[in-house]
Amino acid sequence: MTHTDSLTMRRLLRREIAGTLGLLTDEHDFRAMRRYRSFTFEDHQTYLRQVEALLKTRAAQGTHTTVALFDPEEYADYCAEKGLDPDNPSSRSRFTAELAATGPTVPYEGQPLTDLVPTLVDEAVRQATWDYASTLLARLGSCATCGEDLGRSAFTRASALLVRILDTAPPGHRHLVCSVSGTAEPLVAVLHADDHDGATELDEAEALEFTTVLALGTATRSPGGLVMRTSAPGTADRVYGWRLRGNGLEPLTAGEVFDAYCTDAESGELISPESGVDYCAPPDLGDIGPAPHHQH
Q1: Residues forming a β-bridge with 239
Q2: What share of the chain is helix, strand, coil (3-state, %, to 5)?
């Protein structure tokens, strides 16, 4: 085989190698990395422009790249745990490879960095919310009397509640928000679930996070609520919801939904309602089985 043939084959093989780029999304994280001499960038905006240029070049060459959120504090902890020199590009590469396997990533598909960064941050927040809620659910342990896993029981019931909510919702685009405020860190989960010809389309990761937060709120009897907004062509948007109550959901009245949406959360002052929006009571979810109380 000639030298030229070897170079050609290597170029072809490069197309088969997927890569991950650890991105410093904000100025604070960028400044934290400036303490390392081997990190030679001096300006965050210049750094972002160079990142975008690199992503475009790799895409033009047919190379797939995912982008991960690079956290300098996590990086320092990782290097300390692994005994690595943090002021070494190879250490950053190893950490980034770890992020690709365990952390939130977003595939680069030609979108501007200004669109990619918010998506990546949202993905990181979503995973952190799920991790935190899952940890709290696991800490509930088992029922002292019957031995049932309380977290698993709550998750099963929350899944059934979500299925009923989606089954009783009108067709179209559904935007759901579940908030829980009784934990040390307030939690908010968002789910988009579109109905097309009777089939519900949703993101599995979003659904998992949403169900986990709902399960935690009901299992711990924390203050919170669940609100849905539905949209369909030719009809007014509908907004309705429930408050978390015990092991289940209690419907909000149309007036309560209106007050929630038309009151400024910080000042408490009334704000004008949106035009073309109906604030209404939710449909009846029916019987989804007895709620587990574990008060034996």
Answers
A1: 229, 279
A2: 45, 20, 35
